[in-house]
Amino acid sequence: MQYGIIAIFLSPNAYSSMTSFSLKTQLGRLRIIGYAEGVSFLVLLFIAMPIKYIGGNPQPVRVTGMIHGLLFVLYVLQVIQAKIEYEWSIKTLMLGLLASVLPFGPFIADAKIFREAASASSSAHVN
Hints:
The protein contains 6 helices and no strands. It has helices at residues 5-9, 14-18, 26-53, 59-86, 90-99, 105-126.
């Protein structure tokens, strides 16, 4: 199995997994906030920061930074809530939190960590 960024988005289950965003479940809320936080981080790093340092305009960093900061806090809270609800291990919690500070981290965490941990804990509850 490949673990590259492209492989995550081009996997056969990519479309079906993208359609399972639901505010009704903890995992759905985590996924929505994770994607928003990931996008805001990339916008901050690759659009707002160059505008500030190359173009000399700090305003995009102020606005994007504030939005990203709010989404970052929400993401951390959602990871902690998911750990409690799904009874994830400390390792899964730490990987989820580490993902919040890495570019593309929330996307990889969603594809490789959260979905596997949620399915493992839900199958343990059924048995």
